[in-house]
Amino acid sequence: MRAYLLQRLIAIVALAFGVSVLVFLMIRLIPGDPAIALLGTNAGDAELVDRLHHQLGLDQPLVTQYLRWMGGVLRGDFGYSYGNQQSVSSLIAANFPATLQLTLAGLVLSVGIGFLLGAFAAVRRNRAADTVTMGIALTAMSIPSFWLGLLLILLFAVTLPWFDVVGGTSWKGLVLPAVTLALGTIGFNARFVRSSIIAAQVQRHVVTARAKGITRAQVFLRHVLRNALLPILTIVGIQFGQLLSGTVIVETVFSRPGIGRLLVQAILAKDYLTVQAVVLIVAILYALINFIVDLLYPIFDPRITGR
Amino acid sequence: MGMATGQAEAVTSRGGAAAPPALLTVENLQTFFRTSGGTVRAVDGVSFDLAAGASLGIVGESGSGKSVTSLSIMRLIDRPGFIAGGRILFKGRDLVELPERDVRRIRGGEISLVFQDPMAALNPVYTVGSQVVEAILAHRPIGRKQAMERAIELFRMVGIPAPEVRVNEYPHKLSGGMRQRVTIALALANEPDLLILDEPTTALDVTVQAQILDLVRDLQQRVDTAVLLITHDIGVVREVCEEVIVMYGGRVMERGSVAKLTDDPKHPYTVGLLGSMPQPGMKGRPLQAIPGAVPAPLAMPQGCPFQSRCPHMMEVCTAMPPLKDPGDGRLVACWLYEGGATP
Amino acid sequence: QADTAAVDKNAELVVGWGEPVDTLNPATTGARDVGPLDVNMFDTLVWLTPDLKITPHLAKSWTLSDDGKTYTFELRDDVTFHDGTPFDAAAVVANIDYITDKDTQSNIGLNLLGPCKSAKATGQYTVEITCAQPYAPLLAQMGEPYLGIQSPAAIKKWGKDLGLHPTGTGPFEFVSYTPNQSVVVKRNEKYQWGPAAVGHAGPPDIAKITFQIVPNAQARVAQFQSGQSQIMQETPGIFWKALSPQTSRYTSLSVPITGMGIFAPINASKWPTDDVAVRRAIMYAVDREGVIKLAEAGVYPVNNTPLVKEVFGHDPSLEDMYPFDPDKAAETLKAAGWTKPGEFWEKDGKQLTLKLTAISTVSHYPLIAQAIQGYLRKAGMNAEVEQLATPAWLAANIHGDMSLTPLQYIAVDPDALHLWFLPDQYFNWSHYTNPELTDLINKGQQETDPDKRVKIYSDAQRIIMEQAVMMPIRENIDLVMMSNKLTGVTYSGGGFEYFGAASLAK
Amino acid sequence: MSTLETAAETPQAATRSPAADPATVPARRRHPLLRALRHRSLSVGLLICTVLVLLVLAAPLLTSLDPNAQDPMATFSPPSFEHPMGADAFGRDMLARVLYGGRTTIFASLCVVVLGAVAGTTIGLVAGYFGGPVGFVIMRLVDLLLAFPGILLALAVTAILGPGLLNGVIAIAAILTPIYARMVEGATAEVRHLSYVGAAVTLGAGDLRIILRHILPNVSAGIIVLTTTWLGIAALWITALGFIGLGVQPPTPEWGAILNDGQVYITIAWWITVFPGAFLSLFVVSVNLIGDGLRDEFDPTLARH
Amino acid sequence: MTTTAEPMTSPAAREADPILEVRNLKTHFPVGGGLLSGRTQWVKAVDDVSFSIFRGETFGLVGESGCGKSTLARSIVRLETPTAGEVRFEGEDLASLSRRRLRRRRKDLQVIFQDPMSSLDPRMTVRELIAEGLDIQRDLPRPERRERVEWLVERVGLRREHLDRHPHEFSGGQRQRIGIARALALRPKFILADEPVSALDVSVQAQVLNLLSELQAEFGLTYLFIAHDLSVVEYFSDRVGVMYLGKLVEVAKAEELYADPRMPYTKALLSAIPGEGGVRGRERIVLKGEVPSPIDPPSGCPFRTRCWMAQGICAEVTPPLAEVRPDHWAACHFSDRT
Ligand SMILES: Nc1ncnc2c1ncn2[C@@H]1O[C@H](COP(=O)(O)OP(=O)(O)OP(=O)(O)O)[C@@H](O)[C@H]1O
Ligand SMILES: Nc1ncnc2c1ncn2[C@@H]1O[C@H](COP(=O)(O)OP(=O)(O)OP(=O)(O)O)[C@@H](O)[C@H]1O
Ligand SMILES: [Mg+2]
Ligand SMILES: [Mg+2]
User: Fold this and answer.
1) For residues C127 and B152, what is the distance between their CA atoms, to the nearest angstrom?
2) Domain residue ranges in chain E
3) Is B104 found in the same domain as B124?
4) d(Cα C486, Cα C127) in Å, to the nearest integer?
5) CATH code where residue D238 lies
6) Ion ligand 3 contact residues with beta carbon within 5 A
7) pLDDT tens digits, residue range A244-258?
């Protein structure tokens, strides 16, 4: 167990390091002078460009540059957004809570509803209810979220003003974006949960359990569901990242604040320091979530530590 | 523990010429599977009986319907399979007709089953002890703690060293032989009257197989349990059983005492099966192999399933011969022994 | 006027705001849309009425020295900033110093000061602002919110982060700003120095205003229609057409944004628009009327001269210079040696290709660009549209990496031309230099005689039009829609929505 | 980490009944593609998809209008005989825009998966077959790319390359590449240890022959399944980029960009939004149906037995 | 550790003509570890094994699962690169060959694999499968290759019309026949058969064994025959080697080994054959404990942890494989006791 934890820990630290190097290199890959790119409006000012050059340490070897940048990042200093005339960290601090709220709401929906639908379909396997549920799931997976978002706004915020169009972080403003964000993953999860349960159902030990003389419900809960949880747990981890990056579109459609929209705007505005920070933070967060999932694994499947 | 008491009876009830009332009687059992290609008649009219405390082996090649027979007895056949006909009388009650609730009481209580692959048969996410406890609690109104004590007892009985520690292990930590001991402990949890072992040693090495067979033989003596041993290795049957059934294509071909069957097989299939197995001293001579291959489940011929490979194939073989005693206390299903052999 | 009984002193107003904020710091912002936010938080020395009359505000009165170089302002003595700092001459000096400090990187603010870069307190409430040369536009420009007076204490305290802590003397006090989400302000309870010209005395009626930033026009309209905001700006034309007739529910307010209207500088130093024939052909080829119809449901009036009609120096005689005439466009090109073997014009084996850039974050520019593109393509010019976010768009324009780009410029004085057509100016996005034009514009800046000044600007505009270095498109109007419950919304000259006199019925 | 889609496939494989074991079924079986056609979702998906592709390809036959031709007289015309799907804010014919837009979207999505598949498969084959330190380093790089969730990586690449359709295609292909690489590497490493590869070695086959003759054909089922799975997602992402303004630049029609154009007017002119959205959804549904069908027929875990 | 004596130096053996000589072969696999966890551990799958196989004989290899039979076999045909030791085929050290030479040489050493499904590429037809070796080696012109394939397919008991089918269309026994045909296509001198019949049903197993015998007689083949069914090995082999935990612990003529095993492990193994009790009257020896991990094998004799005869010396000295009788080699300190 200790060895497993240590191994996961080393893995995530290595991953975080790799991610940071990639993200760091990203900004150096941009054609032309990064300082000019960063300054945008003020790029005409040669003095400023020079100063930024020095600030970013562009005149130094890459390793030094990286270490300086990383030093800043670790202190929470991601640089200054010239487009927004404030520090990147304050931009992120201001936008992050809304995104986290949306992502978590989306996760609750996609895992909750997806699980119920999938379990329902698995129990009714190969019957009409199964086919219908899976048809709905497939459709949900296939509808573009931005289009759905528009239709939802038209229906539930304009025609029937039940929810806020631009809700900020109130719950009335959260419902539609969360549904839009989660719909695709609900569909995916329903299918995934169904096949996980079915896969668990056909395991041989399920027959052993039935041969003990316990009830069908007990078999389903203790031996089928319990064993199906492991793949589902993995999916939850992955999905967190999917939803987190999905906010890019949903926040744009619903004019919600958040780092997704911040990212899109930063890309359009060539505000590279902000892009860099958002990408880094989301990737690290995603890695962290998967790290936590890794830590939960042994609880769900005692074989894992043995691997 | 109540196991020791049964010992005396076990000796008497075995092989008694007085023919005690059978514990299990399978009559013309038919278990079919509906598949996209048609109906697979996996078990097609199997009949046999088994006395309390007795031991019977079932041998046959892959796909002959051995496992389906055992699952049918446990009423564990799932869609797309179904029991299409026949009766399974257990202590006088027909398991085919019994409501699910009552079947559940019998499953794991009065009849229990040990599966072939001990790794797949145990749930990887629970400790082995708790899986045994689950089986105990399903049939006995006792507390968890007591159940666990009993599980430890059972572990000790099946020869697992340090059972107090081992109950808390997960299946993957145990070797194949240990796992098989656990599944046997699981099966014995409620002192069943009938223990079905479906290829309990196939996945194991010879030396471990010997250990397990030793254990089964030993238990058979100590506990008054009837044993139905399924295997494709006639040597294994020889170790444990008095009587044996040979199955082919979902049907019983021959039944008799192990010695009689191996020394003087009657059914052409049994002859071929034994001829295919190298015996000491056969070196340098070709084996008496059966030509051809087992027909596909959906391509089983009408009548005797062995007709296409049989050296004595006759016209009458398109009808299934009945199981009859050719006159020496065994049963053979072949027209060759049906006097005269004319249609 | 609303019934006083129904006025809700606790009213909270939600405004659907169309553009993201670069910074709330009036001195450093480069965005027109920050002007209306700042005008509610900051007071200026003078107040410009909608018809551009200069009236007292923080300055009670002012005089201009005879050489036309020194302005002396007499300030009010009863004003305090939101942070409690008293307002006085030193505060004004601190502001001018702040704007002119290179580190501040002031943008519009610095331009508005022109050559008038030094300030001196000659008494506690008297301040002198001195110009290097006579600078006629200064007084009116002092009324633009970009020269709103900030608390000197705040300037000192917040440094680079001043934009996150705007502190003025205006009718509303800053509460919070969440980028891309909202700017929230609350009533300044002590406010007694509102501009007399507005006709509302004392603190505002409205307790709190949330400017919700909704650049997505659809969301902004939906928000307004469903009652989640009581007022929205930048109403897309098609919605304006649909909503403004519903007078029983909605009030519409057109806020004319003076200056140069919506226009497109044409890059005179980059191929192929370095050829004046191409530039003229563009002028003939694009039907401005049609563009407005296509892009904005035809709700705006066309503008055909560099300066819009409200601005001093507007010259109606230039209006008919380039009628929509595709044949004339073709002739012009042919005469200049262009040929059209296929779909597009060519010269020296090179295809006539134009690059139209447009700010992606403001919905109407891409639309205007696309409409222009349609006309240009029809006339055989291979036009491409590239949508860019503001900083990238700015960079492209500064580097001359475009053929033309639709934009707006707000000004209250014809001197705006100065920034657009003089060499080395930040906004010389036509990349055009003409000594004659330079001379005229410089003269106009110093000329104090109105008649002579009109003539100068008329000549200057004629050169601009003849050389076709910009394409005027339409008047610049902020179409504001509001609920009938909201009254008293007005604007200061130049076009900055002002809520100091507004009230919201229950 | 984000092998989401591949992870999803495994459990399904286990649902196969033992009857499918061909060891006892020496009957002649038809080609998997032929068998696959009997699959209901597959045939429905293929039908819809074919119709859509034909419509889009036949655009010049179905409408004589230029998708970019503006008409001030037709702005916001609702669907009518002249404009069966109405016209947009610029008076452009929506039918023409939807059909021509489909060309862009579908073609771009295909490019994405082809690009991703070719790059990822090559990397995966090399890493999986040769293994060793080179394979290790390659796969750690792949892991690194997989550490960026989905569209975030595409956005990061777009940030470097700038907006535009081609860049969008490259960006999304960049997400797919590691996904393919991971799948192909796994499958290759597995196939490499199967005895038929050993058999080929003992017959004297060289590395290239083994990779091309034995490994590639046997991992191809996985590649096909992955490709159909991702084609739908690629279409969604391409349109998403168009929708947020990072994809095609105007006036090129593309479903995502059209949706972006139309979203402002959704309360006034629903037809600008509804038609392209419906076409897009239908396309993705059909591709997903095909993917489901192929997965059932081709699942690599089945090919192994 | 005592050096293992060269086991095949008996006069009888020297007369015979070794086609294959294995000397001190070791194949170790790294496990766990990787970059991060520091010390790599090694599975000693084959640990210092020496023996010879003579032209025309069948050498049987038995041992429990995981004892290293397959690894030894794969190392011999260089599907695995041995860690140390040498393999001489007709006197030529295979490790010394260049890649190209080795590929040419391979046609003399062919393999028949255990799993009849995974050993046939599912994407190829039977014709392509059988012809692949011929196509690679290109010793024959095309028409002759075709002829040989058609002749082979009939020789192993299939029909010509089977040639254009895919492996999944055949039963297990038929697939194994295809595998045999493929191995025969290049006219090898030596065939390594790694559990060729383990996956087959008894009746089909007999058919395949008969076929293998016929082919051996017809082509003068030499077999290295691996199986875990001890009866099959006894029936099929001339000489038998017993492996335990990566080491060869006993080698003798089949009759002699089965009649009089000298190594305790062999004794236990043979006594465990089910159903044999009656036939040979052997006393059943039930071993206690489990096979130790090949990562951390016991010191000295690998079997000592389960051996009922073990004494102090067993933990200290690894017993060499020594000739206890003419042509009977055993690795036990007490091989002279019964
Ligand atoms: N779920 C099922 N669906 C269809 N056919 C089935 C199913 N389960 C078993 N069968 C068929 O029933 C027949 C008998 O199978 P069974 O498992 O009883 O054989 P067996 O004798 O136990 O063989 P083995 O020695 O391989 O275990 C086979 O032909 C098999 O194809
Ligand atoms: N590529 C490998 N990497 C690591 N360990 C291996 C590898 N191949 C084999 N081993 C290990 O080497 C040991 C010997 O394996 P091998 O397959 O040779 O045994 P075997 O005697 O053939 O067994 P079986 O009867 O099960 O086929 C085992 O412990 C196995 O786990
Ligand atoms: Mg079975
Ligand atoms: Mg092996």
Assistant:
1) 98
2) 17-29+44-237, 250-338
3) no
4) 38
5) 1.10.3720.10
6) B 67
7) 989 988 888 888 888
Pairing of strands B22-35, B38-51: antiparallel
* Chain B residues with at least one Cβ partner in D under 8 Å: 33, 35, 40, 62-63, 80, 293-294, 296-299
- B36 and B102 share a domain? yes
The residue-averaged pLDDT of D215-223 equals 89
Q: For residues B152 and B157, what is the distance between their CA atoms, to the nearest angstrom?
A: 9
Task: State both tokens at E33.
Answer: 């570890």
User: Which residues form ligand 1's pocket by a CB distance below 6 Å?
Assistant: B 33, 35, 40, 42, 60, 62-68, 80-81, 232, 297; D 17-19, 24
Residues B79 and B186 in one domain: no
Same-domain check for residues B171 and B244:
no
Amino acid at the residue A253: V
**Residue B182, domain extent:** 120-190
Give me ligand 1 centre to Cα B34, in Å: 12
List the domain range (segments joined by +) for residue D106. 48-56+92-298
Instruction: For the beta carbon of residue C478, count every other beta carbon within 10 angstroms.
Output: 20
Structure tokens at E328: 């009977």
Give C433's pLDDT tier (boundaries 50, 70, 90): very high
Looking at the structure, tell me whether residues B212 and B87 fall in a common domain: yes
- In one-letter notation, the amino acid at residue D145 is L
- Can you tell me the distance from the alpha carbon of C321 to that of C279, in angstroms, rounded to the nearest whole number? 13
Dihedrals φ, ψ of B235, to 5°?
A: -60, -40
Name the residue at shortest CA distance from atom 24 of ligand 2.
E65
Nearest to C356 by CA among C301, C404, C302: C404
In 3D, which of E229, E252, E228 has the Cα closest to residue E240? Answer: E252
Report the number of distinct structural domains present in chain B.
Answer: 2
Q: For chain D, how many structural domains are there in total?
A: 1
- What CA dihedral angle connects D6, D12, D14 and D19, to 10 degrees? -130
Q: H/E element holding D137?
A: helix D132-146
Q: Nearest chain D Cα to E179, which residue?
A: D199
| Residue B318 located in a structural domain | no
Minimal-distance CA residue to ligand 1 atom 26: B62
ipTM of the complex as predicted: 0.83
C457, C415 in Cβ contact below 8 A? no
- On whether residue D194 sits in a domain, the answer given is yes
C-alpha–C-alpha distance, residues D22 and C146, integer Å = 81
Task: Among B162, B190, B218, give the residue marking a domain's end.
Answer: B190
Same domain for B241 and B275: yes
Per-residue model confidence as pLDDT tens digits over D104-144: 999 999 999 999 999 999 999 999 999 888 888 999 899 89
Q: What is the mean pLDDT of residues E229-253?
A: 93
**Residues forming a β-bridge with B34:** B39
Instruction: Establish whether chain A is in contact with chain B, requiring a minimum of 3 CB pairs below 8 angstroms.
Output: yes
Give the integer Cα–Cα distance in Å for D190 and D171: 30
Count of alpha carbons within 13 Å of B50, Cβ hemisphere only? 29
What CATH architecture applies to the domain A95-270? Answer: Orthogonal Bundle (1.10)
Class of domain E17-29+44-237: alpha beta
Q: Which residues pair with B55 in a beta bridge?
A: B227
Q: Would you list the DSSP string of D207-252? A: HHHIIIIIIHHHHHHHHHHHHHHHHHHHHHHHHHHHHTTSSPPTTS
Mean pLDDT of B254-258: 92
pLDDT above 70 for A32: no
B151 found inside a domain: yes
DSSP 3-state assignment of C400? Answer: coil
Q: What's the DSSP call for residue C104?
A: G
Q: Count CA atoms closer than 13 A to A114's CA, side-chain side.
A: 29
CA distance B296 to chain D (A): 5
Of B261, A141, B104, C3, nearest in space to D283 by CA: A141
Cβ contact C122:C432 at 8 Å:
no
> Which residues of B fall within a CB distance of 8 Å from E280?
280
State the Cα–Cα distance between residues E88 and A235, nearest whole angstrom.
53
